[in-house]
Amino acid sequence: MKNKxxxxxxxxVGIVWGCSFIFIKLGLEFLTPFGVAFGxxxxxxxxxLIVAKxxxxxxxxxxxxxxxxxxxxLLLNVIPGIFxxxxxxxxxxxxxxxxNAVTPLMTLIAILVVxxxxxxxxxxxxxxxxxxxxxxxxxxxxxxLGDNPxxxxxxxxxxxxxxxxxxxxxxxxxxxxxxxxxxxxATQLTLAAATLLPFYLFDGIAKDEYKIGPLLGMLxxxxxxxxxxxxxxxxxxxxxxxxxxxxxxxxTPLVAVIVGVIFLNEKVxxxxxxxxxxxxxxxxxxxxxxxxxxxxxxx
Length: 299
Known about the structure:
Distance between the termini: 14 Å
Shape: globular
Number of domains: 1
Largest sheet: none
Number of helices: 13
Structural class: mainly alpha
Mean pLDDT: 89
Radius of gyration: 19 Å
Helix content: over 70%
C-alpha cells in the first residue's frame, strides 16, 4: 500500500483505546460504574453531535433505524460500559485491557452462531481453541484466579461477548441503511447516554471529590475514547481497509499493559502478557490473518 497516511491515525486509535482502561480506573475515583458508563457516553455523544453538525450530517429519524441503533448502543456502550467499570473495581486495568483482546474471537463465535448453515472451517476452530488456551493462561487457571474474583472475570467476558454480538448485528441491521459513520455513532452514543441517564441520577457519583487527574481521565475516555477514536477508526477503514482497521485490537492490550504499569504501578504476572500473545495468535489464526501475511510475503 503506497498511501501510508493512515498510520498516525491508526496508532492514535490504538493509544486512545488502550488508555481507556486506565481512564476507567481514574473515573472510578469519584464515579460509580454507572457514572463512568454515562459520563463516557454523554461526553462522546456531545463530541460527535458537534462534529456531525459542523460537517452537515443529519441524524436518522426513522423508528426502525433508531431501534436497531439502540440495540447496538446496548451491546457496544451501555452494557460493556457498566461491566468494564464494575469489573475494574476489583481487577487491574491491565487485566481488563488484556481480556478486551478476546473481542475478535467473540465476534467470530457470534458470526458462526448467526450463520448456522455455514460450517466453521478447521482454522477457525483451531484459532478459537488457541484463543481459549490464551484466556486460561492470562487468568493463570492452573493456580486459580489469584486475587481476581470469579464474578469480575465473568463480567469482563460478558462485556466482550456483547462486543462480539454487536458487529454481526450492525452489519445485518444497520449497514444496509448506508448512513454516514458520524451519524451512526453520534446517534448510537446519544441513545446510550439517554438509556444510562436514569442509572446515573440514581447512583452515579461515588464521592464529591473532583481532582484534576480523574476529571481529565473521564474527558479522555469520553471525548476521545468514545468520540474521536471512532471517527479515526472509520478514517483508517476508508484508506487502508476494514482488515487493517480492525487489527487495532492487537495494539490496545499492549498499550493497556504499558500505561497500567507506568501510571498506576499495577503488577503484571508473567502469564498475563504471555496469555495475551496467545489470545492474539488465536485471533490471527481464526481470522486467517497469518495466511494473508504469508501470501503477501510470498508475492
